[in-house]
Structure prediction request, 551 residues.
Amino acid sequence: MDEDEICVLSNGDNLDQAFQILQKFLKNNENVFSFPSLCENNRRVILWTAIFQHLQNKCSNPIHALCLAAIRVLSRDKSDLENLICEKWVTILIERAGLYNFVGIDEEGMVPMEMPDKDVAVEALKCLCNLAFNSEVARALCAHTSIAQGLVARLRVYKEIPFKDEIMLFDMKLLFILTALRHDIKAKIKDELHGMDYLTSCLNELLLEAPSSEGMSASSGLVEGGPHYFLNDNQQAIVCEILKAQFNLILHSGSEDPTDEAEEAMYMKLMPVLTALLYTHTTTEEKLMELRSNIANLLTSVPPMFYPYLTPILNAGETAQNVFDGRNMDALQALVNLLQYRLTNTTNTKTQYENLSPILTVMNKGSRGCREQRKYLRQVVLPPLRDVSRPPEKGNTLRNQLCRLLTTPVTSVRDLCAEFLFILCKEKVGRMVKYTGFGNAAGHLAQKGLLGGGRGNEYSSSSDDSDTEEYREAQPRIDPVVGCTRPPRVDPFEGMTDEQKEYEAMKLVNLFDKMVSEGIVKPARVGADGRPQPVEHVMELRDHPPNRPQS
Prediction:
């Protein structure tokens, strides 16, 4: 935008010219994120000031939506934004978004006044989202307004807003940004305004509005059985933003148990809604996995004592696609499908933590906190072994993919994965070695001080680890280090004389001694604490033979 055009906007007399200038600006810059030309001659300040003057002028009502769209585009550029934004402008945007219209209180709560024009309200919300994301000053100014009260108040009256779908999406985006980046706003919404309860009620309302997916064609690949609900793209986007805001509100809440009755009631209200959301279907697999990923993120902050609500007991006449021990396992299976999807599509170690740690954390908490969930996950992830001709990490089953993670350089993911498999094995060393191979499990066992065996006493004595006939036949030929059978090996000493054998043995001894003396390897044995301890002399291995893992 050149100086002449900015001058026309500043004069504010000719609305037709202003309309054309703003339209041209938006058309040319819809995908632009930086405006270096505005740094010249103080153009940026003059342009912003001119636009906000129009927003304060009732005579300029016909171009208010265009003015806000221009601010939306301009606010993408962080240049000098901290010095540019002021409290008055933030207040104008909040007013145009309709967040100051909830000023009356009666017996039923907040009474909304007339909402602004839809385009004006939506564009104002988009401006607030950009400013709150890009500017700490803007966030601080928001914290000193009643924006939090306005957002929570509007949660209670969405039914009465004719264009609620557009408003809800950007309300939730703004709420997510503010609760993520401003602790004071987060605390106010959670503790003073009871935002979690209202957000959960919104999720419930969205489910009630969604059409039933009963009768949908299974060819879509999304239906998993039962009269579940179908979320369109806009509903799915709103639900995801709500879940992200809720994640911010309960993140790092402290104890693994609820701190008071109010918090317990909050989780009791939340869990059935999350379970129902795990039953839902969407237009594409990508959107379905995005929804489930946000649910998994939220579940990482939910205390384990509430996890059994994910798998409710089936009442008489109720059906489910996945039933185990009289419980509906559809929600848990949805999380298993998310785990499979993440494992299959995460090929770069740089994204392993972000993609895998939340769902692995949920699997750990569920399998440790609920016996039925552990048993169901055990049969899905670690079914009875039949083919033991390949190493555990070779293949595309859940077990194979998880075993590959046992040697990933991303230590946090490796530890979560190992702990998950260890819990499924009832924390029994022998069973862990059986399903993963000692080489894959050694690091985790050493970390826990279990190289000598043990643990598993806190689990029920009844065992569902029945070996298959194929496994029993192959068991004598299984190499426990690699976790599979090995073909017969050719004797490397065949045809050698005793002198030649002794010569080769001494070569090996000398090579090993060289590696030890140069510090390349360091011999160790399993100590009394079940962890590896360095050996200073080889005679220690003779005097104290290594412990054998116990099953």
